[in-house]
């Protein structure tokens, strides 16, 4: 019997002491087995990995206060004491860093990126930009994958941290603010 199965069988003995770190929170339909079984058809009809444990919703700690059902833990933003890649304001134009670490996140964002390219020196940390067959990365300084310290160094250099609509929340925008960059998140509407 796998260790996880043995552990799950023992949960009733100590479940009042369990706190589950859950990034985006858990609603009742994904926690309570009775609720899930009553609404199984509406919820997809398949098994539920979260149901059946029987934790109270306040035992789910979340980074964001999405729902009052869960306990809001929050998170700390660390701003390491690092030197910037370059001094803010030392270039001819303001510098921006686009929040999109994979090439697909830049798809269909040409309009906002063209405006950004016209107004700022655009930087990125896209892992797979070299494989992209689009011209979207022309006039973009891509730093590739960076360590947390190097990201902080880059955030201390840029004036703007530009979101591409998703994710709209998370530690990265708060880290940008902590390092002195303005966070702007574009809003896109489907036509």
UniProtKB/TrEMBL annotation:
Record pathway: Protein modification; protein glycosylation
GO aspect biological process, one term: protein N-linked glycosylation
Lineage: Eukaryota, Metazoa, Ecdysozoa, Nematoda, Chromadorea
Localization, UniProt: Golgi apparatus membrane
Record-listed E.C. numbers: 2.4.1.155
Name of the protein in its database record: alpha-1,6-mannosyl-glycoprotein 6-beta-N-acetylglucosaminyltransferase
Broad class of enzyme this protein falls into: transferase
GO molecular function: alpha-1,6-mannosylglycoprotein 6-beta-N-acetylglucosaminyltransferase activity
Source organism: Cylicocyclus nassatus
Residue ranges annotated for the Glycosyltransferase family 18 catalytic domain, each copy included: 10-189
